[in-house]
Amino acid sequence: MCTGSSVTFTATPTNPGPTPTYQWKKNGTTNIGTNSTTLTLQDNQVTTGDVITCVLTPNNLCQTANSITSNGITLIVGTLTPGVSITSSATTICSNDAASFTANGVNGGSAPVFQWKKNGNNVATGSSITFPANTLSNGDVITCVLTANNPCQTSATATSNAIAMTVNQSPASATILSRFNTSTSSFTMCTLGSQESLYPSINNGVWSSSNPSVATVANGGSTTSSANVTVVANGIATITYTLQATTSTCTTSTSVAVRVAQEPTPKAVTGVSSICSGNSTTFSTTSTSGVFSTLGRLNINANTGAA
Questions:
Q1: Cα separation of 307 and 282, whole Å?
Q2: Mean pLDDT (whole number) for 196-219
Q3: Which of 79, 127, 181, 201 is the most exposed place for a label (fewest CB within 10 A)?
């Protein structure tokens, strides 16, 4: 109930009989109206928290109870003041980081609207927002305006607290070049113990390997302009080159995927060295995962070695 207004309650009976009676109550004890299926109250007759019920006394011949009490309706009397506050995942970020914000509204009504603003300009709606990397600048101020729809609100809108962002610039992203002076994002090496040289387009970064048991970086952990990648075992490793800003802890990384797939050495094939036309034979080997083939007129099963 808004201040200065009234509210009407309606009782819907079931099996009341021909001449039922109705007793309206406040908080289960105070009688506030009788003998009507409706009750109208002014705001000065109730306070917030009062519970209104109706007691039905039926007069059926076969009724199971002499009276029954309705459900209760709890009242809120007066006005509502909308409000909103916002929080962020971080207030200091690097330029290549994302930042998320969440709005917490009070007394917003049944269909509140949240309008996000950056430096006073509308950017998005919803109860939360995420700014992707490189979309926030140092000093940007984020706020949110709540538009409420309460029947008794003191104002239609409320503005949140302001969050000022500190955005440190991340280093430029380097390109990793192969020995052929071309940009590369992945390569395959087939011989264990072999090396591949990588060169960054920007110096003074740090090289590292995600899986040294597959591929190592000769200068990993030190600042250098190049790296020698040595393959150790079959598998996949990610070689990463990281640059750090001189005035903050912000970093930028570029990666190359290295696939090491050395083929096994074939073992000897055993079998006859000559065969008469129309006869058959079988060749064998202890190698696995291979296939048989022939360059002559012999027909051979690639999987079993039968000829």
A1: 6
A2: 89
A3: 181
Q: List the structure tokens of 271.
A: 């079998």
Looking at residue 153, the DSSP 8-state letter turns out to be B
- In this structure, which amino acid lies at residue 138? N
Which among 116, 150, 153 has a CA at the least distance from the CA of 136? Answer: 116
Secondary structure of the chain: what % helix, strand, coil (to 5)?
0, 45, 55
Residue position matching structure tokens 């009989």: 17
- Amino acid (one-letter) located at 35: N
Residue whose structure tokens are 């000093």: 139
Long-range CB pairs of 264-268, under 8 A, 24+ apart, other chains included: 264/288, 264/289, 266/290
- Local structure of residue 306 (DSSP, 8 states): B
- Specify the residue for token string 């995420």: 130
Alpha-carbon distances, residue 212 vs 111, 132, 178, 264 (angstroms): 56, 33, 20, 21
pLDDT at position 243 is 93
Q: Which two tokens stand for residue 10?
A: 């309606």
Strands (DSSP E) contained in 166-265 are 166-168, 176-177, 186-189, 195-200, 205-209, 215-217, 223-224, 227-231, 235-244, 251-260
Residues 112-127: tens digit of each pLDDT: 999 999 999 999 999 9
Q: How many CB atoms lie within 10 A of CB 53?
A: 17
Distance from CA of residue 99 to its chain's centroid?
12
Average pLDDT value for the chain: 89
Hey, how many other C-beta atoms are within 10 angstroms of the C-beta on 252?
A: 19
Tokens of 297: 């007129």
